[in-house]
Amino acid sequence: MKPQLYVLFFLSNFVLAQIDSISTRINNQINHSSENPVHSILVYLENQSEKFYYNEGFGLTAENGNPVTKNSLFKIASSTKLFVSTVILQLQEEGKLDINDKVFRYLKDIKYLDFENLHILDSIKYSKRITIKQLLSHRSGLADIFTDREDIFFGMVAQNPSKQYNPKSIIELYYQQNLNKEPHFIPNEGWYYSDINYVLLGLLIEQLDQTELSQSIRNRILGPLGMKDTYFEYYEEFNKKTSQISQYIGDINFSDINTSFDWAGGGLVSTNTDLALFIKALFSYNLINKKSLDAMIDVAFTKKNESRYGLGIYEFIINEDVYYGHFGFYGTFIGYCPKTKSTLSYSISQATPNFNSYKFISQLLSFAK
Question: Are 233 and 273 in contact (CB under 8 A)?
Fold first, then answer.
């Protein structure tokens, strides 16, 4: 055998061994009978520096359901915030806003917002101090309808799982729970993750684009990038060409629940292939320019045991490589490592798996080098 052919043969077998190792480890985590079942796992790994590519799906859409493929759809949950942040930065590039502007300027006329009373701390109203940048970076201090009233919120969802929400009803729920009087700090004096920040950003986009948020994201991102398998669940019609996996919190199948309450904070459904298109376009300056991207990934402190956060984006260090991206509630992530030009996207389909997700993904990435 010629030396060149021997090298090609060796490299081919080495890559196949890497792929087999990844697939085996993924399959080993599929568990249909646990109290925290993991019915499916989808993983996309691409390392351009090493010319490595992996995109597969394993398991079932639900227990005794249809087989999952690499093209299966899933709720991306809070990774939606990456899309919202991108649109906001596009609007800034177009001169329609400045992220240092007070958001009150744009939203004061939406009556149900009652904007002046959104943030009251120790009887002092701070709402007018909140900037767009503080919303993007979760530094407004605003409370959250999910984490601050978790038992009450999920109790309501359990009682009426088919209820259709909209921005107005989300804000009404915020006021009904008196969360406007329970902010966590004065604007810009801390970090607290709240979907209400992104509800306000979604309303801001609708005000400036004069269209629904779902249509704005489609016009600005999904359409131009050819993301044909991505849609805003419960907010737009979509003809699914492939199946959508079931995603769980413990033993509760949230695919049977109307999750329209996620809206701007987490309402998109997509595939790993589409998400890879998006994140690579973002870091190739095809969606926003370098100045905007630099601002987005200018991460700062958050809180103990939490990754640093920028403008709708996390800094995630894994195997000593720095990825920028966003996590989703049901065990999802989309991110990019500029150093190695690597793309990582996955869905574990379970918010509370019986294994350490970070260690699991770290092991998979170690095979992609």
Answer: no
